[in-house]
Amino acid sequence: MTHVDFLDEPPDCATFTDYDRAHMKLYLRLLDAATDGADWREAVSILFGLDPEGEPERARKVHDRHLARARWMTTHGYRLLVREGQHH
């Protein structure tokens, strides 16, 4: 995968953002990795290009915060996306 530009912490808000839109594929891949039981270190290395051994705290934070946002998207964000699509 070509590593995308990302923030260490994705948005933490109750609205669907441009950042979310740009990182939808990343969120899906994180959810797939978690569902498959992949080790977080492997996921963060592959998906973000981070070295979990060299930057363990940052790598864990990036992984966990993006996974949390991905999970938020599955329970709340998708509704906002659907509503947005109905107004176009």
Write the layout of secondary structure elements.
Layout (H helix, E strand, L loop, with lengths): L17 H5 L1 H12 L4 H9 L7 H31 L2
Helix pairs in contact: 2-4, 3-4
Quickly list its features.
mainly alpha; single chain; 88 residues
Structure description:
- The structure is a single chain.
- The protein is mainly alpha-helical.
- The protein has helices at 18-22, 24-35, 40-48, 56-86.
- The radius of gyration is 13 Å and the shape is elongated.
- The relative contact order is 0.18.
- The model has no long low-confidence stretch (mean pLDDT 88).
User: Span between N and C termini?
Assistant: 31 Å
Structural class: mainly alpha
Radius of gyration (CA) equals 13 Å
Fraction of residues in helix: 55-70%
Residue share in β-strands: under 5%
Number of helices: 4
Question: What overall form do the CA principal axes indicate?
Answer: elongated
**Which oligomeric form is depicted?**
single chain
Give the number of DSSP strands: 0
Order of helices and strands: HHHH
Main sheet?
none
Low-confidence stretches: none
- Average of pLDDT: 88
